[in-house]
Amino acid sequence: MESKLFGENHTADKNLLEKFEFRDIKPEEAEQAVAIEQICFPPNEACSEQHMRERMRKAPDLFLAAMDKETGRIAGFLNGIATNEDSFRDEFFTDAELHDPNGKNIMLVGLDVLPEYRRQGLGRELVFQYLRREREKGRKMLVLTCLESKVEMYQKFGFTDNGIANSTWGGEEWHEMSHAI
Q1: For a Cys staple, 25 with which of 63, 74, 103, 163, CB 3.0–4.6 Å?
Q2: Rounded distance between C-alpha atoms, residue 98 and residue 175, angstroms
Q3: Cβ(181)–Cβ(126) under 8 Å?
Q4: What pLDDT shows up at residue 13?
């Protein structure tokens, strides 16, 4: 499968498709998701267990998990909140009630890949699969915030750096990035 996402043609990585199943997260996997979030983010940035569970309850279809076919466990996941807003705000991290199932845009609130699965292209593939899926749903744009150190990575995925975000999440300075779908 080929796409013009990421600013150039991208073909799904067959090796990753053989090793991982990309699917919606299941309610009974909330504990795994919470644990992965705590591993992937420092305490000042990680989503709390309460907020993660609320987000999974309110917007389960906006969680995309990469399941390791060999172990049956989550290797990584990407999640967001649908909205008609165009700009990211910190409340998207903590208020699942902001989710509008008919929203034209997705505010991405977390890309989590366990350390043992990093540097294999899994994060890129999660973003690609997510973009493809949300385009099929008629969404218009993905928006995220990231630290300066991740800007180049997201640019390789086709995101545009919109400059310093209106976010102080975790006491950090963030860049807002967007990707038209």
Answers
A1: 63
A2: 21
A3: no
A4: 76
63 secondary structure, DSSP code: E
Adjacent-strand bridge partners of 141: 105, 180
SS3 annotation, 2-14: EECHHHCCEECCH
State the Cα–Cα distance between residues 104 and 89, nearest whole angstrom: 16
- Residue 5, pLDDT > 70, answer no
pLDDT at residue 1, as a whole number: 38
Distances (CA, A) of 60 to 3, 39, 57, 121, 143: 25, 21, 6, 24, 18
Cβ atoms within 10 Å, residue 36:
23
Query: DSSP label at 160?
Result: E
pLDDT band at residue 11 using 50, 70 and 90 as cut-offs: low
Amino acid at position 1, single letter: M
How deeply is 129 buried, as exposed, middle or buried, from its count of CB atoms within 10 A (0-12, 13-18, 19+)? buried
Sign of CA dihedral 159, 82, 173, 110: negative
Q: What is the pLDDT of residue 9?
A: 53
